Amino acid sequence: MCIIKKIFFAFVVCALSVFTLFAQHKSGKSVAIFGDSYSTFEGFITPSINETWYFLDRRQGDNDVVAVEQTWWHQLIKRNGWKLAINNSYSGSTISSSGYRGEDYTPRSFVTRASNLGNPDIIFVFGATNDSWVPSPIGEYKYSGWTKEDLKSFRPSLARLLDYMTKRYLGVDIYFILNSELSDAIDSSVLAICRHYGVPVIELHDIDKKAGHPSIAGMEAIADQVDAFVKNYKK
Q1: Tens digit of each residue's pLDDT (9 = 90 or more) over 103-121
Q2: Hey, CA dihedral for 117, 225, 129, 175, is it positive or negative?
């Protein structure tokens, strides 16, 4: 009888452990996506007034992404059992305030939007592509005392952004996703500034693009590379 009780007790403990793991997986972690056009999709960005690049059932040029399930972030979140807290992505957005055609991009800049990411467990910052394409002034490395003039340049803007985010989102895992095929100045600046703030950088490679944006194959490659990095990253 004693042996039967022990077996039953062991079975109950095992069942509870499995249930707990299942419940944790189902509840998952909440994720904020903070990006530019690469992370937009019609109807899935906040605020809704943010400009999008990917549309439901509508191609942009020869790009074949036409469903939200094809986006890198949707694939990543689904395969890990996470929850989407917010996707604050804005097509054409820069980290600095310097935009295309010499326009002031302060309203759509990453620095301006950084306070609107909810209360997630994980934040993926996927930016700097437009800063490379504009191209935004690189500027100097500056880690305090930023002025409005400083924020027209990339380096002080990224430092200001990460300084704010690492203080505002305490206990949150922040990752910076660095696009492939950007300028050497942008690449080296991202690596140096993220290192200063202890933010890990996921350096993408071999991303298939159509019309300058990830195709279905490119989206899958981004999801795979981000997923592998997060799973193997040792804090």
Answers
A1: 999 999 999 999 999 999 9
A2: positive
| Pick from 55, 45, 43, 198: nearest CA to 113 | 45
Whole-number Å distance between alpha carbons of 173 and 75: 19
Q: List, as one string, the DSSP characters of 146-205.
A: --TTGGGSHHHHHHHHHHHHHHHSTT-EEEEEE-SS--HHHHHHHHHHHHHHT--EEE--
Closest CA to 54 of 222, 220, 211, 180: 211
The token pair at 31 is: 């994720």
With both helix axes pointing from N to C terminus, report the angle between 216-232 and 72-80 in degrees, rounded to the nearest 10: 40
**Residue 87 and residue 111: Cα distance in Å, rounded?**
16
* 126 phi, psi to nearest 5 deg: -120, 85
Q: Comparing 8 with 201, which gets the higher pLDDT?
A: 201
| DSSP string covering 13-63 | HHHHHHHHHHHHHHH--EEEEEESGGG--TT--SSTTS--S-BTTB-STT-
Half-sphere exposure (CA, 13 Å, Cβ side) for 45? Answer: 24
